[in-house]
Q: What sequence folds into this?
């Protein structure tokens, strides 16, 4: 089947119910997509499908057929990622790619970057290192930069 | 976060982007499961299904095709069947007895993961069940006990003549819940040795464990830490177990074997924070002066000794809190139960006892009707005070300062005197104080003799240590410290990968010792290298008083040569230059293991936490409205990373306070092993935090720095207790403060 991953058309030969997470990591080598729980709780495997944030561990690859899939590898040190770096929003880094995707989706929404909105936007992405403070700061800083 | 103004030119005290940051934010960083090894197999573990019993047989289904499955049991271990740590009581694979429900008994490896899962269903272990002991108070098997006394002759009189306040405090297990599960890959080597790559905190623990399991000489083992997705203590000792398993399968199959735990397996089988029951009894003068303390602490060690003696020791040494007592007797025992071994988790025994003493301070304040902040101010430790082990505090004591800072920043006085409300929503604010000994307990560092250093590169230097970066920022802060000592830019310093075949043993990455102990040793090594190179430049240019600043060697204000040019010339003329130093323990810091008296830690970090809550008297839910911390770190090498440690540790502690709880059935089975039913805080569960860093330098620490990593874990839980007490008038003496516990305390 054909997938559009990070702007490129990719041919995938996989059983239709194989997890999108496994196809991305193992078949396409996109190991920036992480697995933390395998049940849609931690958000480490977050990617965008046609602009919507999903847990790729809960998506069968056939559900993404013909859709645009965006992973962290499709972002190339964007101002958002730069803000994560500058604000110390990544510690161990295992949640970071998923967190970046959730934040990217939030910035695309154009919603005002209030504390509450930002926290709501990343509530499906668990981080055990940072206590979220620097992640929220980074997203707010990137949102402010995007407005200027 | 408060800004700290800098007057100097160096990197220490600044917050450059972390060196591994770009790889992490772009997804390029490769964690263990992101690596693929040629011809790799996947490994799985056959575990016990009962908590206590005698193994009768392992039955391999004769109708199953085992031809492409590698199988291993205890009989395959060429060396000693022990996971080497403090005691050698834990087997790598159980062979006679099982002592907890997740005990590993056999191992399987296969190239095909689906077949591997099916194979697991075709192994049956027959076990004769025995009665498990699950309640630590019922256990008669004591791993270790401690007693600390301070002028005990006066205890009886103090309790007879003064007001006595008494309470019992309870905490349960807490799961580290690093987001990356345990993961290793073991590779067999042509020389009969083993190389292990893995997610871990302490590569030399794994190295030594493998040597004993496989009877291998030192140079036949290499253990390499790869980018690690969180540890928090959970990857201190357990990696020796999973690495031993993968290595056994790798040796038997002759192929690399990767083992990555699923979340449920990780939560069920690996170590957690020790549960504890802590009974406190104190004698107090009417004006609030603390006089005498008796504490009796029982910790649940789980099935094997692992790190329990040192966890209990650290808990005991902090059990009296950051206060002056005239008389004290503190007893603690850590006992065996038939549950998986409990182990290291950030705080290492202190979050338990600090919860008890700080909740007890709230009880005392409440009984004396004194403001709890005033009670603390009256009794806090100051320079010159003596701890129960006889340690006299000589410097870097900030108990009063962190209390005052957190009170001011959180607007405590105004909020404390405001109405708590009258309807179903009640508001309250509370403060807790914590301190945390930095570095190993007692003579730990002296016995370990940690070594670390730097080697010259064509551009600058490479730091050599086995201290791992598990997110806290080791790579970046070590480079900052070495860069300043050498007078070069941060980019000119690299940090070697922790590989036991290449770097000196600087000890495990635990105990808030990385910056203070290993970083200090790295700094001294870099200073030695700076002197060697300055002497070389002086000789080459025939000048005196050479120094290097900003990457340029100069003498008397005259620039001579860039560092890189000097480095290249030195390497060409004189060959490789590497300087390895031993950690130098301050000689006046002395501890006696036999009497358990003396200076338990070279110095202490101090922190105060203020928490504001709203308690819903219809649902008994506790919501956090505000969290403020003030923390004395000695010197913040990297203020953003330091604040990140404080904020992250605080939120783990708030999870401990409000959300995180394990449930066990009567057979010793852990019932909640998933992220769906063991709940850690999300971004919505915690409010915006105010983080204040204070710098009261430790004279023997590099640039004044002292340990920080664990300290933020100690105070927030009792601060929540204090705030809920203020809001409702009820003291909840057991964690977590779930609605059922709050209800029982508020409306008994």
A:
């Amino acid at each position: 089947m054909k997938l559009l991953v990070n702007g490129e058309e990719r041919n995938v030969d996989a059983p239709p119910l194989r997890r999108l997470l496994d196809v991305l990591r193992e078949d396409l080598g996109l190991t920036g997509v992480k697995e933390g729980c395998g049940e849609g709780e931690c958000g480490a495997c977050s990617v965008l499908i046609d602009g919507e944030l999903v847990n790729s561990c809960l998506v069968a690859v056939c559900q993404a057929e013909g859709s645009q899939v965006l992973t962290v590898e499709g972002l190339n040190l964007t101002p958002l990622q730069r803000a994560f770096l500058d604000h110390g929003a990544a510690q161990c880094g295992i949640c970071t790619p998923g967190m970046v995707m959730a934040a990217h989706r939030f910035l695309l929404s154009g919603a005002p970057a209030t504390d509450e909105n930002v926290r709501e936007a990343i509530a499906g992405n668990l981080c055990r290192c940072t206590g979220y403070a620097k992640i929220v700061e980074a997203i707010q800083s990137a949102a402010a930069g995007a407005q200027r | 976060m408060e800004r700290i103004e800098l007057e100097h030119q160096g990197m220490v005290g600044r917050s450059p982007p972390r060196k591994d940051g770009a790889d992490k934010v772009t997804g390029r960083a490769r964690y263990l499961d992101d690596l693929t090894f040629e011809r790799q197999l996947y490994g799985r573990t056959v575990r016990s299904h009962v908590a206590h019993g005698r193994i009768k047989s392992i039955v391999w289904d004769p109708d199953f095709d085992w031809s492409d499955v590698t199988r291993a049991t205890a009989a395959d271990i060429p060396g000693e069947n022990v996971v080497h740590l403090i005691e050698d009581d834990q087997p790598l694979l159980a062979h006679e007895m099982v002592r907890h429900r997740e005990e590993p008994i056999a191992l399987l490896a296969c190239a095909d993961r689906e077949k591997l899962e099916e194979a697991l269903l075709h192994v049956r272990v027959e076990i004769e069940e025995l009665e498990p002991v699950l309640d630590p108070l019922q256990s008669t098997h004591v791993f270790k006990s401690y007693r600390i006394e301070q002028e005990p002759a006066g205890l009886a009189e103090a309790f007879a003549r003064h007001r006595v306040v008494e309470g019992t405090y309870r905490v349960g297990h807490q799961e580290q819940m690093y987001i990356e599960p345990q993961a290793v890959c073991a590779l067999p080597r042509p020389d009969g040795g083993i190389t292990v790559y893995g997610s871990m905190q302490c590569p030399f623990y794994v190295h030594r464990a493998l040597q004993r399991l496989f009877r291998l000489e030192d140079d036949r083992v290499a253990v390499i830490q790869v980018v690690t997705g969180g540890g928090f203590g959970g990857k201190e000792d357990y990696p020796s177990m999973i690495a031993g398993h993968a290595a056994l399968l790798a040796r038997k199959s002759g192929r690399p074997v990767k083992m990555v735990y699923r979340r449920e397996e990780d939560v069920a089988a690996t170590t957690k924070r020790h549960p504890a029951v802590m009974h406190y009894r104190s004698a107090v003068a009417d004006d609030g002066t603390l006089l005498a303390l008796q504490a009796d602490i029982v910790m649940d060690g789980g099935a094997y000794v692992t790190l329990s003696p040192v966890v209990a020791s650290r808990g005991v040494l902090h059990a009296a809190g950051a206060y002056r007592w005239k008389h004290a007797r503190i007893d603690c025992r850590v006992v065996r139960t038939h549950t998986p071994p409990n182990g290291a988790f950030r705080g290492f025994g202190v979050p338990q006892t600090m919860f008890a003493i700080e909740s007890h301070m709230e009880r005392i304040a409440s009984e004396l009707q004194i403001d709890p902040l005033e009670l603390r101010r009256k009794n806090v430790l100051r320079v010159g005070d003596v701890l129960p082990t006889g340690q006299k505090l000589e410097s870097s004591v900030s108990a009063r300062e962190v209390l005052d800072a957190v009170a001011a920043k959180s607007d405590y006085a105004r909020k404390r005197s405001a109405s708590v409300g009258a309807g179903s929503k009640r508001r309250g604010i509370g403060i807790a104080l914590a301190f945390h000994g930095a570095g190993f307990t007692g003579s730990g560092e002296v016995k370990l003799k940690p070594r670390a250093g730097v080697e010259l590169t064509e551009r600058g230097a490479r730091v050599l240590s086995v201290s791992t970066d598990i997110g806290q920022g080791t790579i970046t802060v070590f480079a900052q410290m070495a860069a300043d000592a050498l007078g070069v830019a941060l980019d000119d310093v690299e940090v070697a990968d922790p590989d036991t075949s290449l770097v000196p043993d600087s000890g495990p990455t635990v105990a808030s010792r990385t910056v203070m102990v290993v970083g200090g040793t790295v700094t001294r090594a870099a200073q030695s290298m700076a002197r060697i190179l300055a002497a070389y430049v002086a000789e080459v240019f025939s000048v005196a008083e050479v120094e290097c600043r900003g990457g340029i060697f100069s003498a008397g204000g005259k620039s001579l040569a860039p560092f890189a040019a000097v480095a290249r010339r030195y390497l060409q003329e004189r060959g490789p230059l590497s300087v390895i130093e031993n950690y130098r323990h301050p000689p006046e810091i002395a501890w006696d293991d036999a009497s358990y008296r003396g200076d338990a830690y070279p110095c202490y970090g101090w922190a105060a936490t203020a928490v504001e809550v709203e308690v819903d008297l219809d649902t008994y839910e506790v919501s956090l409205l505000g969290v403020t911390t003030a923390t004395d770190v000695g010197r913040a090498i990297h203020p953003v990373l330091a604040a990140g440690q404080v904020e992250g540790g605080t939120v783990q502690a708030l999870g401990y306070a409000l959300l995180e709880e394990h449930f066990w059935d009567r057979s010793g089975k852990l019932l909640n092993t998933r992220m769906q039913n063991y709940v850690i805080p999300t971004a919505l569960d915690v409010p915006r935090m105010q983080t204040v860093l204070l710098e009261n330098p430790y004279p023997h620490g590099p640039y004044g720095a002292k340990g920080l990593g664990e300290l933020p874990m100690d105070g927030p839980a009792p601060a929540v207790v204090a705030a809920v007490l203020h809001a409702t008038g009820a003291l909840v003496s057991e964690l977590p403060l779930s609605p059922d516990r709050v209800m029982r305390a508020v409306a008994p």
